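Reviewer 2 asked us to include a model.

Predict the structure of this chain.
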Amino acid sequence: MADPPEATVEPSEALAAPPPGARLPPEFSAVYATHSQPIYYLALRLLGDPAQAQDAVHDVFLKAFRNFAGFRGDSEIRTWLYRITLNHCSNLRQSWSARNIHTAPDDSLFDQLGGDSPNPLRVLETKELGERIQRALDAIPPEYRLLLLLVADQELSYEQVGELTRQTADAVRGKLHRARKAFSVAFAKTA
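Predicted model (structure tokens):
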């Protein structure tokens, strides 16, 4: 008997709820509902591939679920999840397969940025801008990319970023200044 065809699932739909049949404690379900989308976007920016980012989110929440009872509350839950995400994505980038197997980028994320805009020129401009931003992020050192993503995309404070990256807030502030300059130079080169 043939297997039923698999349904195509958009990344935002795949992250909207835990897997079917999963029984999560109500407090963890709330954590998942609140933080799955920001974790996905952080993983996407760090990994550059929507499929890898989606897999990373599931791995991150599996790790968080396994260790949820041991969460002491020394930091915010969001900071704890971001630390797991940063470590997991770093491990993925360092793995053999990440260094040697290259997949074609999925443009569906950039296609969604246009929203309901009826103007095709606006959709194209948004897609091109997103691609330029990603190329500029890829061109700067990983530490700078991480700082920019945490402060700009995730809107974390310097203290929270310092906690995640194991630096002082002043060090984050200084490196972020250099990261913004490096991004500006790299972005100008993508024109």
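Residues 34 and 48 are 22 Å apart (CA to CA). The chain has a mean pLDDT of 76. We have added this to the supplementary material.
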